[in-house]
Amino acid sequence: MTNHSIVDIGVNLMHRNFHQDRDEVVARAIASNVAPLILTGTSLRNSVDAARYSAKYRGQLYATAGIHPHDAKSCTLETIAKLKELAALPQVVAIGECGLDYNRDFSPRDVQRRWFAEQVRLATELNMPLFLHEREAFPDFVAVLKEHAVKQAVVHCFTGNRSELEAYLEMGFHIGITGWICDERRGRHLKDLVRLIPLDRLMIETDAPFLTPRDLKEKPADGRNEPAFLQHILQAVARCVDRPAEEVAKATTKTAAAFFGI
């Protein structure tokens, strides 16, 4: 464990997997020098819950407010107005998780594009950063972001290829790396790509309760990921970029603090 505290920029803490022991999960994170945590809003209800819960831990928990592409089908202009209200709260630091997901297609693609664009517009209007999700939708995703000249965005849970990474970096975006980098089956290419990300654009996240690092020595019995495991992801990233973990901890924390204004 590093002495320097590290920021987990993506935690689905309002997920039902944490209903039984949410406070304990936060306590373990803080004891592991993982703080602040940024709770991901993925639907209106979830964004409201994340904002409400994070208000109890001032300075240690923050939240995003957004509609995930899976939930775009339930989005209306009223939803966007409610996101705008949430965004005014001091603990809400970004618009998202929003974007496009053509892998699952839980919402029709034209519907996804419409409500992604509306959230991009909202973030631009409020001068707030975007917390982005993209899966198998790169050309359309980039087109929306370019159309709105987005500058301040983090591509959360990046798992793409080199040309996609280079395009994001060229657009000035930040990149979020998860425990996917610890997966010897799917994450091999990330071990090389992470070296291309400047430290002032790199952030780290667990995406808990998902994406539990596969190479954890002591795996949780229920398979659930939690923010305390970010220390493990930090070590993996540090090995890949060939820098001391302490240096990567300081850099990613400084980058996250500046990006989210926390």
What is the topology?
Blueprint: E1 6-11, H1 22-31, E2 34-39, H2 44-54, E3 61-65, H3 77-87, E4 92-101, H4 109-126, E5 130-135, H5 138-147, E6 153-155, H6 162-170, E7 174-177, H7 188-193, E8 202-204, H8 230-241, H9 245-260
Average pLDDT score: 96
Task: Specify the number of helices.
Answer: 9
Order of helices and strands: EHEHEHEHEHEHEHEHH
Please give the alpha-carbon distance between the first and last residues.
23 Å
Q: Tell me, what's the shape? A: globular
Helix content: 25-40%
What structural class do helix, strand and pairing data support? alpha/beta
pLDDT < 50 runs, ≥5 residues: none
How large, in whole angstroms, is the Cα Rg?
17 Å
Strand neighbour order, sheet with most strands: 1-2-3-4-5-6-7-8
Largest β-sheet summary: 8 strands, parallel
**Percent of residues in β-strands:** 15-25%
What can you tell me about this protein's structure?
With 262 residues, this protein is an alpha/beta fold. The chain has nine helices and eight strands. The chain has helices at 22-31, 44-54, 77-87, 109-126, 138-147, 162-170, 188-193, 230-241, 245-260; strands spanning 6-11, 34-39, 61-65, 92-101, 130-135, 153-155, 174-177, 202-204. Helix 3 (77-87) links the parallel strand 3 and strand 4 (92-101).
